[in-house]
Amino acid sequence: MSVLLCDSNCELWFTRLRELNLDYISMPYLYNGEEYSYDLGEKTDFEKFYNAVRSGVVPKTMALNPENYKEILTPYFKAGKDVLYISFSHAMSGTFQQLDSALEELKAEFPDRKCTVFDTKSVCLGAGIQVEAAAELKNKGASDEEILAFLKDFTNKVAMYFVVDDLMHLKRGGRLSAGAAVAGTLLSLKPMLTCDSKGGLAVTEKIMGRKKAIRRLAEKVATELTGTEYSVYVVDADCKEDGDELASAITARRPEAKIVRQTVGPVIGSHCGPGTLGVIFIADKRPIALED
């Protein structure tokens, strides 16, 4: 018997996880000298977090250590359960090296148990839409092998596009050079970003100005959406009006789209910053980066 597990970087809302009967790993973040674990919106003070960032506070995210992972996984193994963990992109964090170390140690204590990890090569609801689809299959009686076979193809159809308001957040996280961040800010340049086939961040195009960026995000959904049976997630990091404008623009072009509006959590928000806007949906294939 296995348990389906995800992490809070998938960004599915806590009520949705309860509907799907899913367990999750809370990923940590730090700001104003206090450490938190993201609870998928259950008690998170989003306004406090984003106000702090806008005032100049620089939040940090942290990897879990092997002891954290052992503490999370041991109860499942003791209960005689295997784990299928659908994770956010391994290319974006060193935390999975810590997970590997924990699993090596647990193997000696629980030789008959296993934890299978599927790398979604995405983050935020790019990972979440895969978790959601897998959980629905699991709840219909699918085996781990059937779920993994489904995800192997499904992950290549996840389209995620987003733009940030302040390029300096990406610069601090090492995702953008200092020169590019300064030049882009002076030119009001809004690079449209995605998760590439390896799970890293990549630029798909460069856009001048906020309003045009919103229009382009809506156009991406309008022209590329194929999996209409799945939700179209429209996310914002403390810029609700822009997010609502984007959702309305998508509905005008694709009225059959099942739009879900959601706030970006503090862990993802620590890297992209306030004002980030994004869309996640199912297309024929993943977006192609400029350098591909």
How would you explain this protein's 3D organization?
With 292 residues, the chain is α/β, with parallel strands linked by helices. The protein has helices at residues 14-20, 46-54, 66-78, 95-109, 125-139, 144-154, 167-172, 178-186, 210-224, 240-253, 266-272, and strands spanning 2-7, 23-25, 28-31, 34-37, 60-61, 82-87, 115-119, 158-163, 189-195, 201-208, 231-236, 258-263, 277-282. The strands form four sheets. A four-stranded parallel β-sheet has the order 2-1-6-7, with helices on both faces. Strands 8-13-11-12 form a four-stranded mixed β-sheet, sandwiched between helices. The chain has a three-stranded antiparallel β-sheet with strand order 4-3-5, with helices on one face. Helix 1 (14-20) links the parallel strand 1 and strand 2. Helix 5 (125-139) packs antiparallel against helix 6 (144-154). The longest helix is centred in the middle third of the chain and has 15 residues, at 95-109. Residues 173-187 have low confidence and may be disordered.
